[in-house]
Specification:
Helix content: 25-40%
Structural class: alpha/beta
Order of helices and strands: EHEHEHEHHEHEHHEEEEEHHH
Number of strands: 11
CATH class: Alpha Beta
Shape: globular
Strand order of the largest sheet: 8-7-6-5-4-3-2-1-9-10-11
Bound molecules: iron/sulfur cluster
Largest sheet: 11 strands, mixed
CATH architecture: Alpha-Beta Barrel
Length: about 300
């Protein structure tokens, strides 16, 4: 099983597309666990299921005070650890320490190279620090994904970002279709690209992937019936893993199907993971949010019914 762990809801950015559930449901609990509680949480989970990997996210995970100790603990239990960050808090010595303690892959957000557009999207202006963090991670030859939101505001930036990633030897580029959740809900009109715009940008990404032999993932699953995946042979399309191999744990140990799903299935501290996993809620969520004919569709394997939160 793979888990995303929202170690803290705290973040010093204020991205206008942020899908974190507490940006939409402001009364969502925003407490955090201390290190001992996190160890107990994952120790219990390890007894109940095989944990193949954990991606630590947030909020901004580097704002969790004892992050190093958590990583050290997970690494001692042979769990593959990834870190998702906006990148501005990563200096050389932190990167070295994180890698030494067991982080084997990083995911950094880079939504624009034009400082004005970057600022519009993130409300931050430390773009140079992000680029520097990318360079520093690659110096240690550690796996790195650069992830970019696919929105109306930064469409012209995508080809430039792909070029830069190639020049910086980034391993994977993840293009994330805008999702109408979290803060994105308020900013939908400003951000949501049309299907035609999506097709155009996928076309360019497809050509770049071919030219550079680059790994470009379309991470938020796209409906194969609306945008045919076969037209973009050099891109790798994701499928919805909703409550199957990948799960989400929030900052107090609640289990949800995924980042976008606000509904809590239960809490890992007081319920068995397998009971929660096999409970009615995730099964119903998977079945009830499909497009009209997904269950009989020949492409189901390709998109898994696509992301339930794109609307
Ligand atoms: S599985 Fe559903 S969303 Fe995916 S291609 Fe088929 S009908 Fe479309
Ligand atoms: S609904 Fe599926 S594709 Fe969308 S975020 Fe959840 S797991 Fe991912």
């Amino acid at each position: 099983m793979f888990f995303i762990f929202e170690i803290t809801p705290k973040c010093d950015f204020d991205c206008i597309y942020c899908y974190n559930v507490w940006k939409e449901k402001t009364d969502y609990q925003q407490k955090i666990l201390n290190v001992e509680q996190i160890k107990q949480l994952f120790f219990k989970l390890m007894q109940e299921t095989e944990i193949e990997g954990i991606t630590i996210s947030g909020g901004e995970p580097l704002l969790y005070e004892n992050l190093f100790e958590v990583i050290d603990f997970l690494n001692q239990h042979n769990i593959k650890i990834g870190l998702t960050t906006h990148g501005t808090l990563l200096n050389k010595s932190k990167i070295r320490k994180l890698i030494k303690l067991g982080v084997s892959y990083f995911e950094i957000s880079l939504d624009a190279l034009n400082p004005e557009i970057y600022h519009k999207l993130t409300n931050d202006n430390q773009l140079d620090k992000v680029k520097q963090a990318i360079l520093n991670i690659k110096k240690y030859n550690t796996k790195l994904t650069v992830s970019t939101i696919l929105s109306k505001l930064n469409i012209d930036e995508i080809p430039k970002i792909i070029d830069l990633c190639f020049a910086m030897s980034v391993d994977y580029i993840s293009l994330n279709r805008f999702i109408t959740g979290g803060k994105g809900k308020i900013n939908k009109n400003l951000l949501k690209p049309s299907i035609q715009e999506l097709k155009e940008i996928l076309n360019i990404a497809n050509q770049k992937a071919d030219k550079y032999n680059a790994n470009i993932n379309i991470s938020v699953p796209v409906e194969d019936c609306i945008i045919s995946h076969t037209n973009y042979k050099n891109l790798k399309f994701g499928t919805c893993m909703c409550g199957r191999k990948k799960w989400l744990i929030d900052s107090v140990g609640n289990l949800r199907t995924c980042e976008q799903n606000i509904n809590i299935i239960g809490n890992i501290f007081n319920q068995n993971f397998n009971t929660l996993k096999n409970s009615k809620q995730p099964t119903e969520f998977r079945q009830n949010n499909l497009k009209n004919n997904c269950t009989t569709c020949n492409f189901f394997y390709n998109c898994g019914g696509a992301c339930r939160f794109v609307n």
